[in-house]
Amino acid sequence: MNNSVRTTARLIGAGLRALLALTVVCGVLYPLTVTGIAQALFTDRANGSAFRDGSGRVVGSSLVGQRYDLPEQDPDAPEEAARPDPRWFQPRPSHGLGRNSVNTRYSLLLSGATNRSADNGAVDGRCTRDSEPGTLCALVVAAEQAVIADNSTPGRTVRPEDVPPDAVTSSGSGLDPDISPEYARLQVHRVAARNGLAVDRVEQLVTAHTRARTLGFIGEPRVNVLELNTALRALVRN
Predict the structure, then answer these.
(1) Domain ranges of the chain
(2) Checking phi first, is residue 146 left (phi over 0); if not, alpha (psi -120 to 50) or beta?
């Protein structure tokens, strides 16, 4: 009996020592080591890729897309009622999970894709105005019409063939921070007109914020909308 008690006590003691050792190693030393390496070598990404304006104020994350809408007239209106602010470059459409309806006191960041097939709502294999409402084709057609209407300026009418795919389709997360250089250039005349700027000055801004393919062959050329709009804000204020 005594041997049994001593064996049990020894096993419990060994278990407690193992628990203490693993807690120190996995719960303290490992997190501190990883955090230290991340802060030393990857400070920007470790801190959420926070992007700051000229005054040093954090205005968002360069990895997360955000909308640039006019102020809501009715807080209870559905998200679809929000209209893009024509003064700013606009990101890709966001067809994620919708607005926060759990705690409306806070604006939560919700992410998600449309989960619809590429031919959802197609009529004879094409997306047309006759596509069933709520389908992917209907969303694409509506987005194309909005892009054409919003970006056509006096003396310059945007044609359907001028609209790039990323202007009418959302990303898998709905939070893509980048747009194609083609979509950015499509918006140049509207942004210039709304802010009283010269078109060539806004075009230079887009060119300056266009990133090439990673390592020269990964991905596509892209423009970060947050960084571009932050530079635009500084240009307008000057």
Answers:
(1) 2-43, 48-237
(2) alpha
